[in-house]
């Protein structure tokens, strides 16, 4: 086995146990499938976790938990195909606005409508149906959001990860095919630019 992978699998034996609460007399709970690989981000840098998916051409779902956020990423044969954060730094509407593809008035109108309808319809689809955004522009913005989620996790130094083999995103989710090595390089540039911007403020 590659020394890098041997080290990674050895360190990941310090797994965070998954427990399912049991109440006496309660109906049986649905069992949660165990993670095939899990560990501590403080012991194994998150970029090494992503590299493992590339090196081993893994397929499945990676859950990442930090102190104040969490993310879910899906891979197919080592390629990143989808990902999202529980708390996104930029939502789809903001990405479209920053790209000059919609106006602030259009964004506010759809935000209010989205709130009034209880979020039953996806926000991006609402923009398309209103004629404010083209489908290709929405897809491009969704892919940008996936990449930004990936870049954000690269700065996480504490938390845990869990890998579940062969789990795939919903068929209606926009999917990409991103090479991990290229995304890691782009992510490092993204982090450096963000740090430079913070110093200049």
- Report helical residue fraction: 40-55%
Give the integer mean of the pLDDT values: 83
- Helix-strand makeup class: alpha+beta
* Rg, Cα atoms, Å: 19 Å
Distance separating the two termini: 47 Å
Number of DSSP E strands: 6
How many domains would you count in the coordinates?
1
The backbone outline, from C-alpha atoms, is globular
The succession of helices and strands, N to C, reads HEHEEEHHHHEEH
Q: How many H/I helices?
A: 7
Low-pLDDT sequence parts: 7-22
Q: Main β-sheet, in a few words?
A: 6 strands, antiparallel
Widest sheet, order of strands: 1-5-2-3-4-6
Q: What fraction strand? A: 15-25%
Question: What does it look like?
Answer:
The protein is an alpha+beta fold. It has one domain (3-17, 33-194). Helix content is 43%, strand content 16%. It has helices spanning 3-11, 46-56, 92-98, 104-116, 123-129, 135-153, 180-200; strands at 37-40, 60-65, 70-76, 79-85, 160-165, 178-179. A six-stranded antiparallel beta sheet has the order 1-5-2-3-4-6. α6 packs across α7 (180-200). The chain is globular, with a radius of gyration of 19 Å.
């Amino acid at each position: 086995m590659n020394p890098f992978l041997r080290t990674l699998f050895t360190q990941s034996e310090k797994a965070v146990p998954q427990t399912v609460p049991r109440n006496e007399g309660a109906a049986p709970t649905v069992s949660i499938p165990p993670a095939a690989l899990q560990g501590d981000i403080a012991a194994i840098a998150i970029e090494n976790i992503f590299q493992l998916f590339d090196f081993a051409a893994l397929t499945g779902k990676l859950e990442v938990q930090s102190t104040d956020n969490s993310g879910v990423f899906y891979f197919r044969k080592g390629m990143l195909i989808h990902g999202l954060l529980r708390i996104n730094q930029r939502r789809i509407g903001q990405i479209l606005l920053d790209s000059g593809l919609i106006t602030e008035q259009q964004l506010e109108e759809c935000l209010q409508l989205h709130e009034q309808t209880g979020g039953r319809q996806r926000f991006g689809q609402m923009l398309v149906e209103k004629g404010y955004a083209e489908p290709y522009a929405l897809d491009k913005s969704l892919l940008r959001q996936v990449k930004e989620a990936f870049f954000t996790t690269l700065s996480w130094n504490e938390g845990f990860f869990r890998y579940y083999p062969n789990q795939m995103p919903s068929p209606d989710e926009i999917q990409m095919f991103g090479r991990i090595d290229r995304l890691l390089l782009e992510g490092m540039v993204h982090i450096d630019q963000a740090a430079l911007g913070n110093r200049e403020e």
